[in-house]
Structure formats: structure tokens, C-alpha cells
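Run log, item B.
One chain of 454 residues. Sequence copied directly from the ordering sheet:
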Amino acid sequence: MARFRRAMGLQKSIHNAEPPAQSLVARQVVTIRSTTNESEDCEMEHAAVIEMTSIRKAQHAAVIRSFLLVFPLVGYLIVFFVAPLCLVLLYSFYSPEVSRAFPLTSQQIERWQGPDIPDSDTYLALAADLLNPESEFLVGEAARRLNYEISGFRTVISRTKRNLAAADISNPAALKEEVIRADPHWGEVRYWAAFKRATSTVTPYYFLAALDLEVNGTGGISPVPEDRRIFVSTFLRSIWIAATVTLICLVLGYPLAYALISLRPEFSALLMFSVLLPFWTSLLVRTTAWIVVLSQEGIINSLLTGAAIVDAPLNLVFNRTGVFITMVHVLLPFMVLPILSVMRGVSPTYMKASSSLGAHPVRGFLSVYLPLTMPGIGAGCMMTFIIAVGYYVTPLLVGGGGDNMISYFIAFYTNETINWGMAAAIGLILLATVLVLYASLGKLIGVSKIVGLN
């Protein structure tokens, strides 16, 4: 009995000792499992990091490839559009010719306030600058710039330089009289005032001249004399001609675009051929052909007089009528094609739906179809106006003396007189006019609709 009790006690002690062992094993298993889970999580995080890194590298490589693909276009735009535009902007107000050619005189003239002529030191500096052999070319450029301020100033510079070279300038005290004797205009205050204005490297002269304004003797801004006011009227005439041509192209181009999507394919192709035909001939050939067609012995006048519609040939060329006819023929495709592209995207079911709801066809067109084609109208009007306002070859050839547009003066100052500052100022004012029109039309219709993004 005593042995049995000891055996049972031993069994109970063993049984009581088993739970701690099982708990330890369970904790070890849980620890191993948690460690395994943490290791798997770390591996997954590491794999996600590697995947994100590879995605970023792929995106970076795609960006580099895209940049390399558009780099030629961007470089072309920078070299041939942005850089010349910035250069034009610089030439319109930057004028360092006088200060480069006459550095000593520019320093002295800064202290001169008038109303009398400058002191002897200024005349001494003027003589030193004129007789400097290293500034031969610079003096010529400065004389051209001074001639914009006062007509004939270039002659004053050349005469003074020639006479001073033969005069006795050994006595600085008498040099003032020698300069005035070389050319009496140096004894006038207005010539020195113009010289002082021209010594500034930043000048408003070109912009003021492009707006028919000038700096008067008191330093204020006043209109130029009546016989010299040509630019503002030419700007207004250019805008008027361009707006009229745009309106005529819209009146003719909208029904033409609608006919192109409504006719049978063979007739539509023939009509499209006639619309695109002006693109396949040069501008000069088209303009010359219209001179022949519209002349008094041309085809149109021959038909009109032959049919006894008119008694005498009409004046259809070398006037405003010829300008309108020729420019409308040239610019009509720029109105038709944008409207046509928008009309192709308008479903005909819209008009059928408005008709089924009882709307009159005219009301359905005005309320449904016309608003849907408004982006094409805006894009066509914008393209036609921008091209028309920059025309000068066609008005020059088929127009009269009063039909020259503002682009003619830009070409004149660029090619004939080499006055790039004046050409730049006129071009920037014309650019600002077009941008104002674009902003106004964009606010009315929407820029995204005009450029086709919406």
C-alpha cells in the first residue's frame, strides 16, 4: 500500500511537471512562427522597395527618352522662335550706339541740364570722340541713330568730323568755337538735347515713333506733326482689312464646310480639291494670276462687258476690292478646314432630335448646331485673322497706295533702312494686338476649345 501511494505520488508529480514543458514548447513554436512571419514581412517589404525602385528607374528612363525625342523640336523652337523673339524685344528698347561711339561726350552730357549749350569740356570730349581713329565704324552707327532723333543729324556728324580733321585743335580753350565753326548746329540747344536722349542705352524712341509720338523739347510726350502720322492709321487699316477678310471667309467658309460633309463622296472630294488648290501654288503666282483675272482686260471684265451687264470695265485691281478678293481666295482654306474638322464630330442625330421635339430647322441650327461648331469658328477666325493682319505682299501687288498694311513697314525697316529697332517695336505692337484679340476670343469661347483640347 505504501508502495502504491508512492507510485501514485510520483505519477502525479510527473503529471504536474508536464504542463510547464508543453507551455515552453508552445511558446517556442509561437516564437518561431512570429519570427518566420517577421522575416516574410521583411522580405515582402524588401521586394516592394526593389519593385518601386525599378518602376522609378523605368519612369525616369521613359522621361529621358521622351525628352530626347522632343529635344530637336524644343531646340528648333528655341533657336528659331524664342531667341529671335527675345532679340527683337531687346532691339525695340536697347540702343547703345551713341554711348559706345561717344563715351567721353556721354559722360559730360549727363551733367548738362540746359537751357544753354554745354560747357567747353563737353565740346572737348566731342572732338576727342570724333577724332578717335578706333571708333570710325561706331561713329557711323551712332550718326544713323542720331538721325532718327533729328533728320540731318548724320550730315552734322560727318561734316563736323571732316572739318575738325583739318582745323587747329591745339588750343583746348578755343575748341568750342572750332566745333561750332565746323557745324553751326552744335550751337543749338535742341541738337544737344537730342544727343543727350540718344546717349541712354534704354530708349522709348522706337515705341513712341511706332505710335506716332515723340519726345518734345521740354521732355514730355506729344504727337508728331500731321504729315508724319502714318503708323496708327496703318495699324487701324491693317486690323480693318484683316477683320473684313476674316468675316468674308467665315460667310463663305461655313456653308462650304457644311457642304463638304453633306455631299456625296465624289462631289465632296472635288469640292475639297478646289478648296485645297491654293495651297499647291505659291503666293506670288496666285497674286499675279489675280492681277490678270481682275484687270480691265481680264476674264471677269470681259464676261461682264460681253454679257452687257456693265457698260465699262470695272476697277477690280490696284484698290481695296482687289485686296479683299485676293486675300479671301488665299485664306479661305484656313477658315474651312478648322470648321470642317469640328463639323465631322457633330452627330446629325442632334438636329433630328431637335426637329422631333418640334423645333424649327432655323431654331435648331441656331440653338444646337451652331454652338457645337463654335470652337471651329473660333479657331478658323483666329488663324485667318492672324495670317491676314501680317500680309504685305498681296496688298502691295494688288492694292493701291492707301492699302499698304503694317507688315510692309516691318519689312521696309528690316530690309531697306536696316532700322531693326523700329521694325522690332512695330512687330511687338502688332504681336500685342494679336495677343489681346486671342485673349478676348479665348475668354468668349474658351482657349481649350480654340486649340482643340476640348
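Observations after the first pass:
- The chain has three domains: 1-91, 97-199, 231-450.
- The chain has 21 helices and two strands.
Flagged for discussion on Thursday.
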